[in-house]
Each structure stands twice: as C-alpha cells, then as structure tokens.
Specification:
heterodimer, A: about 160 residues, Four Helix Bundle (Hemerythrin (Met), subunit A), 2 domains, about 75% helix, B: about 100 residues, Helix Hairpins, 3 helices, elongated
C-alpha cells in the first residue's frame, strides 16, 4: 500500500492529489514502525509528518497557483536518463541485499529485549537525553535557524 | 515473524520511487515531497536495524532525521514561496536567474 501510494504520488498531475497520496504513504510507514514495536516513532511520525509537514505542504500548494502548472508538461526532458539511473541504483541496492543474504537463512528479527519492549518511549528518552544530549541540542538549534530562515524568506518585501 | 529482507525491499522501493520523483518531475513542490519520501525510506531502514540489534540508537537517529526533514521542508517551502512571489513559477527548469 505504501509503495502504491508512493507511485501514485510521483505520477499525479494535480499536486493536491500527490500530497494526499504522500500522506497515505507516510501513514503506512507509521504502521510499519508500529509493526517494528517502535511506538514512540509511530506517534512522532503521525504528529510531525502527517500533522505538521504535510499541512505546511498543503498550505504552500494553496498559496502557489496551480491551475497553470497543471496544464504544463509534468516531466522534464531528461526523464529517460533519470529513470534509467534510478533503476540502476535500485538494481545495485538489490544486488547488495541479495549478496549479503546469499546462502544463509533469511534474517529474522530477534525477540525484543525485555527492558526495551514494553516501555519503548522510556528507552528512547533515556538514550536521547543521556547519550545523545549534544546532537539533541544541535538539532534544536537547527530547528531555530530553519524557523528564522523560513520566516525571513517567506516574508513579503516591503517597498 | 517477517524476515528483515522484506522491510529492506520496501525501503528500497520507496527510495527508488523518491529518486525517480526528484529526478524527473518539473514541479519543485513534488520534488520536495519526493525528498520526504526518500528520508522516510531511510527511516524504515534505521528502525529495522535498530530493532535487529535490540537497541534504540536507530530510533534516536530516526528522530533526528525527522527533525531534519521538518527543517528542510520549512526552509524549502519558504524558498519556493519567495521565488513564486518573484517569478510566478514553480517549475525547476524555469529557475534560471543564476544562469550566465
């Protein structure tokens, strides 16, 4: 389902349809996270991606006039080369996965360690605020810079 | 239990679709959305391997990637808005002010 919506997202002519299909893909990914027993990331994915980033996208799509762009050519001229390159990239990754797996039983996910499994959020918070404290602070500064930058750039020039 | 391979294949498919989207579409907004798709594929990989090793480090990195994606989306859309106010276009191959 995630893959199908992703394909639809890239090929739709109307940007709004693309955005809706991207939301569908992100929700499916959130489901995958839940399947991997990462409850915290599941919630973060839904709130931040689906709730935050996608609302931003839809707002910008609304602000940017799309009636004109819908009637224009959707794909650029180098689409054939680009598609071939992407397929080569995919084949390479496929080969890498296949080569590491060859002649072995398929890797299975082990049972979750007992101290992590029932309290995923606690474990994530522990790691985030002890071992990864400095990256966390840097990420907050990055967000601040991005916020200021976005406000400055989206501001209408006066005069 | 689902084998790890299947998650990797899903991630690979999403990544490839994202790359195709970035490389072939003319609309900058759709290119940005494809970048989000690529970041999501990476996130899936991180989560699978974090789950495989039984630690939460991969999940912490996935959080950082989501943070980066948010920052990138905000700045990118700000740029698109500013550009649209100036040039009235969202197509990547018409953005040639910097061309000599």
């Amino acid at each position: 389902m995630a893959v199908a919506s992703a394909i639809l997202m890239v090929t739709r002519r109307n940007i709004v349809h693309g955005a809706v299909f991207l939301i569908n893909t992100l929700l499916s990914t959130a489901g995958i996270f839940l399947l991997l027993q990462a409850e915290f990331l599941f919630v973060v994915q839904i709130i931040l991606y689906v709730g935050g980033i996608m609302v931003l996208f839809v707002f910008v799509i609304m602000l940017v006039n799309l009636d004109v762009s819908m009637r224009q050519v959707q794909f650029n001229r180098q689409w054939f080369v680009a598609g071939a390159l992407a397929l080569v990239l995919a084949a390479q990754f496929l080969f890498a996965i296949h080569a590491t797996q060859a002649g072995r039983d398929p890797l299975r996910l082990p049972a979750m360690a007992a101290e992590i499994s029932p309290k995923n959020t606690e474990a994530v918070a522990d790691a985030l605020f002890s071992h990864y404290m400095l990256p966390f602070e840097i990420a907050s500064i990055l967000l601040l810079v991005a916020m200021i930058g976005a406000v400055v750039m989206a501001k209408r020039r006066v005069g | 239990m689902i084998p790890v391979d299947y998650y990797l294949f899903l991630s690979l498919a999403l990544f490839t679709i994202g790359v195709i989207g970035v490389l072939t579409r003319r609309n900058v907004i759709i290119m940005l959305m494809s970048i989000e798709l690529i970041l999501n594929a990476v996130n899936i990989n991180l989560m699978v391997f974090s789950r495989m090793w039984g630690t939460v480090d991969g999940q912490v990195f996935a959080i950082f990637i989501i943070t980066d994606a948010a920052a990138e989306a905000a700045v990118g859309l700000g740029i698109i808005l500013a550009f649209f106010h100036n040039r009235e276009t969202v197509l990547a191959d018409e953005m040639d002010i910097m061309k000599w």
